[in-house]
Amino acid sequence: METRHRVVVGNARDIALPDDSVELVVTSPPYPMIEMWDDAFAAQSSAVAEALDAGDGERAYEAMHAVLDEVWAELERVLVDGGIACVNVGDATRTVGDSFRVYPNHARVLSAFASLGFDPLPDVLWRKPTNSAAKFMGSGMVPPNAYVTLEHEYVLVFRNGGDSRSFEPGADRRYEAAYFWEERNRWFSDVWTDVNGDLQALDHGDLRERSAAYPFEIPYRLINMYSAYGDTVLDPFWGTGTTSLAAMVAGRDSVGVERQSEFVDVFADQVAGVPALSESVARRRLDRHREFVAECAADGDELAYDATHYDFPVRTKQERDIRLYAVEDVESTDDGYRTVHRPVRDCELI
Q1: Residue 349's pLDDT is what?
Q2: Within 13 Å and on the Cβ side, how many CA atoms surround 93?
Q3: Distance between CA 277 and CA 290 in Å, rounded?
Q4: Quick one: which of 62, 12, 37, 68 has its CA closest to 209?
Q5: HSE-CB of 22 using CA atoms within 13 angstroms
Q6: CB 105 within 8 A of CB 33
Q7: How far apart are CA 56 and CA 50, in angstroms?
Q8: Which residues of the chain have pLDDT under 70?
């Protein structure tokens, strides 16, 4: 199997892709009213800087979201009917002028997608790691003027159009891309507390801070949850390329759009590690399933079906044809990368 990964240096408000050309969007945009993103928003809208200079937080908040609204309209255009958009976003707390308040970015993004005709689906909360001993803001140890610290973010999920996607009869690429029963139970929970666990991405150094990159586990899960082999995943706010990295490991095509070319250059230095990362991810998924099988056996719970490509049983009929792929080689192309994948066999993982 081969996958293609295109990287476009440009503005996400004008995505250079045809209509109905991607099946999944996974992205983490700059968060309005987070100070590190002020300059990026102001560079695209003078209204942002004017509002901040005037101490008008509400107007600045709306002006920043107006920039994102143009991107969301592009996603509606390039996503196939029934395609899924996953947007990782956090709320912001900030003092502007004399007013301290929360700016509910997730609610504003929900409203924007709904106005474009997307159907909102159940979302996910995940908790960010923190090393701070101060779990509050404000007046300290006495009431009433302390504030809860925001330590969670949202993965908002939307479907483009009213109907789910349809697949060709048989659709081997869909059934090979199935997830395990126990993965479904963990991944489709509405609260993720383990996203900083076993599956780690490559280190991007100081650019990770500047891009506010999310953990590799988030796009990797979402790609497996909402796409099949042969699908294309788009990230219009590519940053350090975490979504493309996850797409490579998951065996999907990808397109990333990024305004700053330096991020593209840094990602190029990381791709040599993709084969080892993909092996590690595949090994961990299969090992975890074997642990689940052993736990079931210890409880006298016999799984009903034998996997087609592996030497273990599975819980449901839909899991029988699961097949994981490892990256064998990554080659540079004129517009990104070509990735060669091979099926992962049992003997490689013992």
Answers
A1: 46
A2: 12
A3: 20
A4: 37
A5: 33
A6: yes
A7: 9
A8: 129-137, 139, 196-213, 347-350
In the prediction, which pLDDT does 136 show? 61
**The pLDDT value given to residue 146:** 82
Q: Phi and psi dihedrals of 54, rounded to 5?
A: -85, -5
d(CA 223, CA 177): 10
DSSP designation for 101: E
Q: Are 103 and 93 in contact (CB under 8 A)?
A: yes
pLDDT of 45 reads 97
Under 8 Å CB-to-CB from 310, ≥6 apart: which residues? 286, 322, 346
Distance CA 259, CA 13 (A): 11
Beta bridge partners of 322: none
Amino acid at 330: V
Give the CA distances from residue 242 to residues 76, 158, 246, in Å, rounded to whole numbers and listed in that order: 22, 20, 6
Tokens of 27: 């992205």
pLDDT tens across 193-212, in order? 888 633 444 454 554 445 45
CA–CA distance, 203 with 207 (Å, rounded to integer): 9
Helix (H) or strand (E) holding 265: helix 261-268
Pairing of strands 79-89, 22-27: parallel
Roughly what angle, to the nearest 10 degrees, separates helices 57-78 and 105-115? 40
279 is written with which tokens?
A: 């092996």
Pairing of strands 152-160, 79-89: antiparallel
CA 181-324-304 angle, to 5 degrees, is 35
Q: Which pLDDT score, from 0 to 100, does residue 350 have?
A: 41
Instruction: Please report the domains of the chain, with CATH numbers, ordered by start residue.
Output: 2-272 (3.40.50.150), 276-349 (no CATH)
In the numeric block, which tokens belong to residue 257?
């759009």
